[in-house]
Amino acid sequence: MKRRTFSVVAAGAITALLAAVLPQAAATAATGANCKLNTKLAQAQCDAVTMGILNKVVTFDDTKRSTVSDYQVNYPQQGLLWRFDENLVPRMDLLAKQDVTKDGKTIFQELKPGLKYSDGTPVTAEDVVASYDRVKKSGTSPFLGSVDSVVALSPTSIRWNLNQPWPDANWVMASNALFINPAGRQSQASYWDNPVSAGPMKLVSWDKGTGTIVQQVNPNYWAKPKVTQITYVSIPDAATRKLALQSGQVDYVFDLGYQGVQDLDKNTIRWFAQPLPGTYTLTVHTTSTTNPALQKAKNRQAISAAMDRAKVAKVAFFGTVLPSCAQTFIKGNPYHQCALPNDGKQDLALAKKLLAEAGNPNGFSFDMIVWARPGWPEAGLIIKEDLAKVGITANVTVKDAVAAQADLQRGNYQVMFTGNNAPTVVLQMYGWLVKGGYYTTGSRVLDATEPETVAGLAAAQAGINEAATAVSPAAVKAALLKANKAAYVVSNNIPITDRAVVSATRLPNNLLQATIPGEWLYLATNPLLSTQRGPAGTNNQRQ
Amino acid sequence: MATDAPSAVTTPVSADGQGGPRPQRTWEKVVRRSGRALIVAFMVMCLAFLLIRLTPGDPASAILGESATPESVALLKAQLGLDVDPLTQLRNYVVGITQGDLGTSTLTSMPVTEVVKTFLPVTLWLILVTVLMTIIISIPLALAIAVVRIPSLPYIFRTVTAIGLALPGFLVALLLLYQFGYVWAIAPIFGYDYNFPANLAYLWLPSVVNCIVLVPVLSRVLYSSLVDTLDEEFVETGIIRGVSGIRYFWFYVLRPSLAPTVVLLSYMMGVMVGSTVIIEFIFALPGIGRELVNAVLYRDYPVVQGIILVFGVLVVFLSLLGDIIASLLDPRVKLT
């Protein structure tokens, strides 16, 4: 009898435990009404969506950004003077008006009236000045090299004093160059654990353990986001991200593997290879003390000549990208021109000739770090095989994206398979070849002493500066060609192919997608940003 | 040491009154064994301390990279406590540990104690659930195969367990995640809930994956012990005396066979603290293994140092616990 009682109690306990555990397993992300895959963007409105991102967010402090996940989560909640619309055109966000003087060296801006942060405090011109000063002082100020100073003329008026015309200003201000935060608080380290928002969404919670972040609509934002709540969950494994989407536990996943995406249910899920305005590249440490062979421009050019870019595009990235023939991306770029020898096609004879000229006829070896993102390790291995054909040995190590990016920023690498992208082609080249560029700080790609490299850098920088200040498309194109040819001579950043990221969604098209240059999240609002009137007096509407 | 070498003057009289060293009581053995464990833990602490100092070159420069300015290197050295002589560093380190201060993450600015407090419980829960599942499966399985005398059964058992051991953990994880998480939708694909019993929803499937490896190992060891035990004379005596049921299986068969299994389990638990990283990665569990790998990749030395210290102490503690339980279960096992 006792034994029977024990059995019954044990069975009951196990059943209760299972009942407590299993129903939770079936919980799925809610998406609300008018939130189906085929809902038109104009009608779309979602209650709560869940997004699967790669890494746990490290910080919201824009001067300490470290991963693509940080950028993505930051973008919808940060205040921006300009913001990209669904067509990737920068539109005035916190601004009501912008004027540029005829010489292009001064920008006057007027904030929208009555702007407030999510906590109700007003957004002021002083905040813009403080945000600029803080970013500039931190040394992490990509693309702000044209700016001498920013001055508040009144609580809502700002003046930008430039050292040269800055046609890319709107694109830069719509990217991650300058997030607007309260002047009095942004210098406190604790502020960044729970920053206020001048963007469409506001931070509600941040679980540093699981990495889960919840954002809700910022009631003080001037437009109404088409999503009430976004939950970001960190799912590092691409296969798990895909299963999470298929099971309905997340609504949008970023950076899926290429294999198997064709199997996703077309009725409920749409996958796409989002082209990014950038290139996959081999970044070379041109002053590496651990590998003097890499200091020679001819050796770096030999690497460029030996690789089969078409094979990388076809095999590693399943034909979703185009093989590069210049530093700048191809797809959607009206200024694209080939600048690499033989249009970037594999040329083993040229590679051997360059190696001989560099004094390394039998090749050399180097350590190559590859970011652990879908397709990247495969691309790295294809390049390794190609280089072996001319005697160059690449020792490949695959590293987590956070760690690899840290190594790049600290100069702890010899060669790195990585990727870049930027709002405009000028900024893309600026990022690698001009002091103050996004990738040049810390990565030591500009510190070369070899005469050929030094001369190439000077020529490239001259071309980029010419393109940066040119207004007519023909002049921009001519200057970019010069810069691209010089960039090949330098070959500190060897272009491989265009970039694309495979993502998949259950949400209406363009509602919430990582489409913005830099892989940041576009979030649709009502009214749509694209319906905003363009700025008066500017002459810089170019891509 | 001295207790093993009887002294002519102080040799105690043994219980049987025939002289020689007095047998140690169990609590004395436990205290002695614990003392040794503490010494090992201290050595682990010193190793963790040395880890950051043995980095080729200067650790601060390694963290900041070639592009770092001397000022920023000096600043980080001060932040890491590397700007004083090694003995002072060791003293500060030990004092810090006694005050619960393991340093601060260079990546997230989070205190390392917070990192451990946040992520270690998840891994410990995962190990606990895994061990419970393993015990529940392994003991009846090994017992049944050892007791039920079907000649082909041990061969089938060895083959199946060999397959389990040969399967790569990540593959099993993905296959089970697909089947249970997606097809049958009875397990969450990712995430974690810190509350009990809600956390079990997130832990049972990763634990099953761990069991695929652990059950074959443990059940094989237990099976071998059981077969040996069943050949012992006292088992036959028990049968002749008419002992049966739970009393027979527990006192005559299982208990004398468990010691090697318990010791192995305690060792495997220690190993699992660090080796569950792949499971944590695939199931997106916020465990300490994943944090350690990230810290190593990011050169976040204070976190690496702190986690290794915690791992070391845990392994020492689990090993001690395993030895004590084994000696309590089977008097033949000496707690040395």
* Strand arrangement in the largest pleated sheet of chain A: 8-9-11-1-12-17-13-16-14-15
Shape descriptor of chain A reads globular
Helical segment count of chain B: 14
Low-confidence segments of chain B = 1-15
Specify the oligomeric state: heterodimer
| Relative helix content of chain B | over 70%
Q: Into which percentage range does the β-strand content of chain A fall?
A: 15-25%
Comma- or semicolon-separated keywords:
heterodimer, A: 543 residues, alpha+beta, ten-stranded mixed β-sheet, four-stranded antiparallel β-sheet, 13 helices, 29% helix, B: mainly alpha, 14 helices, 71% helix, 0% strand, disordered N terminus
Can you tell me about this structure?
The complex is a heterodimer of chains A (543) and B (336). Chain A has helices spanning 2-25, 68-77, 125-138, 169-173, 238-246, 297-306, 309-316, 348-357, 376-388, 401-410, 425-433, 451-469, 473-490; strands spanning 46-53, 82-84, 90-92, 95-100, 106-111, 147-154, 157-162, 201-206, 213-217, 224-225, 227-234, 252-253, 270-284, 365-371, 393-399, 415-419, 493-505, 512-516, 520-523, 525-526. With 543 residues, chain A is of the alpha+beta class. In chain A, 29% of the residues lie in helices and 22% in strands. In chain A, α7 (309-316) packs antiparallel against α9. Chain A has a 10-stranded mixed sheet, with helices on both faces. In chain A, strands 4-5-7-6 form a 4-stranded antiparallel sheet, covered by helices on one side. Chain A has a two-stranded antiparallel sheet with strand order 2-3. Chain A contains 13 helices and 20 strands. The N and C termini of chain B lie close together (11 Å). Helices cover 71% and strands 0% of the residues of chain B. With 336 residues, chain B is mainly alpha-helical. In chain B, α6 (153-166) packs across α8, α7 crosses α8 (198-230) and α13 packs antiparallel against α14 (301-329). Chain B has helices at residues 26-53, 59-64, 70-80, 86-98, 112-147, 153-166, 169-183, 198-230, 233-240, 245-254, 258-275, 277-282, 288-298, 301-329.
